[in-house]
Each structure stands twice: as C-alpha cells, then as structure tokens.
C-alpha cells in the first residue's frame, strides 16, 4: 500500500508541474523584461531613473485609482494576471508578489539610482516571517516526499527478496535503474521549475531531493554488489563508487550545497567501504585529494563555505587515522596531500577572496549594521570556517609526524615542509590569520616533541632500530633528526615572516603586527630548543653563529621598517618586535659561545650598548632592553648564585668572581640610568634606578655571606652576625637612596628608601629578636665582653637606626621616622638586657640556664638607667617618640619591680629594688619640673607641655 501511495504522490506532482507550465513561462518572460528595464535605467542616468520611478508609482497604484485593463500586470517574478498569480501561489505555496526577491532588488536599484548617482547601497528591510502553511506545504512536504521515495524503493526491493520473485542481479539492476530515473526526473523538474521556486525555497528544492535519493540508491547498489554478492572486485567497486561520488558533487552545481555535502560524504566513505589485501597510501590519498579538489572547485564556483570546511575535516580525519593506525607509513603521499591543501586554499578557495568579496548581512530596522574593528576583521576573516579547518587539517598531521620521529621514515622533513607551507599560506593571503598562528604553534610544538624523545637526540649521526608498530613489519633503520634541519627550519621561517610583514604591511596593519611578532619569536624558540637539547652548552659554534646572523638580520629589518613606516600606524609594534628579537638572538649567541661569568657580563654589556644606542636611534624599545638584560642576569643568578659554579668560586673575600658577576651589572645599571637622565620616558629611568639599587644591595649581601662562610655559599641558616651585616647594608642603602632623592628627586629613590627601611625593620623583628636571638638559639657570644656578638647584632644596628631616624626627620613622613626611632630604642634595650645576662652567665646565655636573683635586680637598675638616658636624649633632640619610649621603659621597670622583684627577690635586694625605683621616679619628676620651669617664659614651653 505504501508503495502505491508513493507512486501516486509522484504522479500528482508531475501533473501539477505540467499544469503550471503556462504560468511559469510567463513568469520567466516577466523576469527577463524587468532585467532589461533595470539595465536601461542604469544606462539612462538619474533623470530617467526619476521618471521611471514615477511611472512605477503609477503602475503600482490600486486598480480603482487608475484606468487600467482588467488583466493587470504586476512587477516581479510573479507577473501575470491576478487569477494566474493566485493560481501559482496555491500550487507552489509561493510568497506574495511584493515579497519576491527580484521585485525588492529592482525597486531598490531604481530608487538608489534616482537619489544618488553613485548608487550607494541602503539597508534592506527585514524579511517577513514565512507562514506555517508555506513551511508545511512547500518545505516539509519536499523532504518527507524524498524520504518516502527512498523508503518506497527499499520496500520494493525487500518485497521482491521475500517473495523470491527476482534474482539478486535483477533486483540490483532495477534499483540502479530506479536511481538513474530519480536523477533524470530531478533534472527534468529542475528545468521546469527553477525560474519559479529556485530563489524562494533553496533549502527545499524538489530536484535536489530527487537527485540525492537517486545518488544514494546508486551508491548503495554499488556497495551491495561488491560487499554482499561479490559481483564486482575491489578495483571496480572503488571506481564505481568514486564515479557516483564525483557525479553527485558535479550535480551539486545545479542542485545546491546539500547535494555537494552528500557527494563529499560518499567520497570520504568510499575508501573505508572498499578494502584490499594490499592497501596503497598513494591510492588512498590520491583519491582523497581528487575528491577534495572537486569539492573545492565546486565550492569556488558557487561560493560555498560549509562543504569545503567539511572536506577539510574529512581530510584531517583520514590523515590522522593513517598516521596513527597504519603498520607502515609512507610519508610522501601524506606530504603531497598536505601541500595540495595549502595550494588549494591559497589559489582555489578562498584563494584571493577579500572581505569586500563576501557579502555581509544587510542592516535592517531591528539589527543595524555595526562597523567592525581592525581586530574583528583580523580574527573573523572572510570564509573563517574554511581557513580555520584547513589550517587544522595541516597543523595536526604535522604535529603527529613530529611525534612519530624516528618511527616514520623522513617524518621530520615532512613536518618541516608542512609547517613552512602553512606559513607561506599565512604570508600570501590576508584572510590566513589562522594558518599563520597554527604554523607557529605547530613549528614550536613539533620541534619540542622531536627533541623530547626518550633517549634524546644528542647525536644526530647515531643510527637506531626504531620499534615496530602493532607488531607489523619493522621500519627501515632510521637516523635521528639532524640538527641542520631544525636550523634550516628556523632560517626559513624567519624569511617567511619578514616577507609576510613586508606584504601585509601594505594592507592590513594588524596582520602585519602579528607577523612581526611571529617572525623573530618562532625561529628563536626553534633555535633555543635545538641548542638546549642537541647543542653543546659550553661552546656551540654552529648555534652561536646562526644566532648572531639572525640577530643582525632582525636589527637590519628594524632599521628598514622604521624608515619606511615612520608615519604609519602599527610601525611601533614591528620596531619593538624586531629589535627585541634581534636582542634575544644575541643573548642566545652569548649562551652558545660563552659560559659562566662571561655570559653574565655579556648580557649586561648588551643592555648597556642598547641604552647608549639611543644616541643614534631614538627608538623607545632600546632602553627597555637594559631592563630585560637585568632580568636575565637576575635569572642566571637565581639559577647559579656562584656565577661560575661552586667548585670554581674563589674563596678570597670580596675580590672574587662574585664581585664582578654581581657588581659590574649593578654599575652598568647605574650608568644606564644616568645616561637616560634626559630620556623623555620616566618609567624606564625609574626602573633602571630601582634595579641598580637592588643589584648594589645584592652585591653587598652576597659578598658578606661569602666572606662570613669561608668562601662557601650554601643554604645554611645565617648567623646573627651575618644577619646583622645584611641589616646594616639595608639601612645604608636606605640612607643612600634618601640622599640621591634629595639631590635628584625620583619616586624610585623616595619610595625605595622607605621600602628598604620597612623591610629592614621586619627583618629585625623576625631575625634579631626571635629567629637568631642567642637567648633562644644558644649561639656563643665570644670571649671578649662588649666586643662580642651582641655589639654587632644589636648595638650597631640600633645606632644605625637612630642615625637614620635623625637623618629622615623632616624629610620623610612622621610615622616612618617614629618607626625607625622606636626600632633603635628596641635594639638598644635588647643590647642592654642581653649584656646583663652575659655578665652573669658568660658567653652562653641560653634560656635553659634560668635566672639568678642578682641578675633579676640588675635588670631593674639597668632598665631604669636606660629610661633616664632616653629621656635626656629625647629632651636634647626634642623628640617626642624617644621620650615616649623612655616612659614606656620606665613603666616596664615599675611593673617588673612590683610583680617580679617582689616575689623573687629577698632581703636587701628587694629593698634596694624598691628604693632605687622610687629614687628614679622622683628624679624623673624633678627633671621634668626643672625643664618646664626653665622654659616657662619661652615660646617652646607650650610645645614642650603639649609633647609631654
């Protein structure tokens, strides 16, 4: 029953098409007439266009407003009588006449010519939503009908098999005839109906559905004849399936992109459906390449985007399957196929397409057109899907080939060729931003994969026996990757990048800026990876000389592009990238040709030369190279603090390799900052001043550690004496930066001096009072009283903080000065207290020894005396903070006497403690009274009373 209904529906469709033949012919004639009228209007000029517009207004008026014949004609493809028009709509489910695309285009063209001789485009009004009736009758019915036809053919074949009416050969022959008949009927319907419905229902074309059903039928018949019944051999089946696939792709020129996708799918399935005992990579990739070319040629003619993107995806899938699953890989056909992809994208499709060649969605009343920025145009180029999938289809196989070295013969050469092909594609075409980026990623990633193989690629002349894949026949004996290949790849990529900047700089500046970064960065990464993994880290002439050559090339390119692009936008990016790239190659050459101290000093000297080069070229990038050099030197110091290695470091204090390795970069940084004193940019000058100060401190600190540890630098915890030296250095650095700021104001010196002071105070709190305090660590103080560890660790830093606080007074914020003064008091208090303990316990003052009664009494006496002394100093220098510290110290003494001495002391010591405390308190009161009464008649009395 279903088969009968299918045939009846098919017959009714043919009858309906024949019945509308007259209307279709009239519509075609009217379309041709409208085209001739539009061409005449364009040729006549604005005056004729205005007259034609007025005539069209009269012709478009309602029937009751003008005297017109009853058989009135309408503008557009639905031209004809009103009855014919309604009949055509009823049969084909067409849109109203005013919605027809040709009508809208003709009216807009006439209006544009009449108003503007340049015929500038205008916003297109929003297209009305399609009716539910049109969707059901004109679109869904087409697709359901196509499915019904295919099912009908399947059911007929099934019925004939079950009934035993026909032999397999006859059934397959009838099915093939049925498929050919469907294709023929599709062509017949296309020729009859295309002028009428081609534009209105492009995604529901009856001819295309019929042709697709016929192609599927032929494809299925061919495969069943080969795979099920064995009527064909593999070669014949492969050829027939290819003919069906290519024929479908060819017919897609007439029937649309959906049929092209079907043909592409069939062509991609053909190699998987037909298998042989001896598969050939040449046959596989030859067929895939031809299918890919046919698809792209078709897409180029019809300007399609979806089908070529799917073709790229299919090619990527087949290439990855072959490279990863084949027991033996022949790399030549793979390489030729990848080169074919590069040529096809560059010359065929998208080819030379630009953004102006691809129509953009027109603005409507609800979605106005938004102008795109340069960045949007760069990363959303025309035919984005095609270019991105094409780049991925080449980049992923390149990475797989790199990862399979040395298991795949000559895989490294194929990898290099594919990467360069991608780079060349990104150079020659303005839309190829993703081929350019993926070529860079594939180049660097592939080199890293090749050089990170187990066992390494240290000896390029060693031959190894690679492992077999899947237990199949072994590959021939291969050599490891030659270093020369990587060096050639770096040079070739640099050349491609320079050409790209030259070509793209005349058009899209953003693309040229991207290439100006890739051009030095990718070769540098390749050369660096090659040197670090395959080169001689002590001395490598090959890598060093090539790095020097590339550095000179990029400096010369920077000079050339700077002269040509002084007034062009984006020139700064190219200049910065090329100069920084040349500097990076010179640094790499230093690492290849020198070692140890020479490398460290060479980097600093390179940065200094760049600073002095500002006298010849006022390039903004040059001073920043010194900052980069300082960072590199700091990195080398962090990697190897001894500069030359622990075994080679001299044990002579001060005058050793550390003085040169740390001190010379510090001096060069200071010299560079001085050279830039008139440079317009303050940030780089301030940065170099800060780095110079840091390196000076670092130099002093490392020399102290070297001298105090017997010429050995290790990770041991520093002693109190060593830490005290660091504290004194930081205090001195703070004072030096304060002096520099007073002489030549600079935010680096101003804030740097305060940062150094705060850091030193934190260091004192953590190390001097807690971490390295001899009372907690048990460290011996030395045999000589006073001239011992306590003098270095507490008294000298206390005096230094006092002097710094006095120097910073009225020059730095008051809270900062108070912090320094209180730190000085705290260190003096610690020195006095620990000195008392040393007097009673000797050079070992560890806490486990406990306290003696005389010792406890002595603390009270000494603290009170210290409080009185601080009071005198505070009054002498009119320092409120010192006087407050004095009051705090006296308060501590009072608390100690009443809480500690009363409970722990006995006899005369307890009495003397209280007597002494009372005498001191009375003396302090008398002191204040005498000072206040002496100054009561002066202007300082109010201030003193306020401070007190």
Automatic annotation (TrEMBL):
Chain intervals with Low complexity compositional bias: 101-126
Region annotation (Disordered) ranges: 101-127
Domain of life: Bacteria
InterPro entries: DUF2339_TM, UCP035905_mem
Transmembrane segments: 140-157, 169-189, 209-232, 239-260, 280-299, 320-343, 378-401, 413-434, 477-501, 513-532, 544-561, 573-590, 596-614, 621-639, 654-674, 686-704, 724-742, 754-772, 784-807, 814-836, 856-874, 881-899, 911-928
Keyword Repressor: no
Keywords: Membrane, Transmembrane, Transmembrane helix
Protein name, as recorded: DUF2339 domain-containing protein
Organism: Shinella oryzae
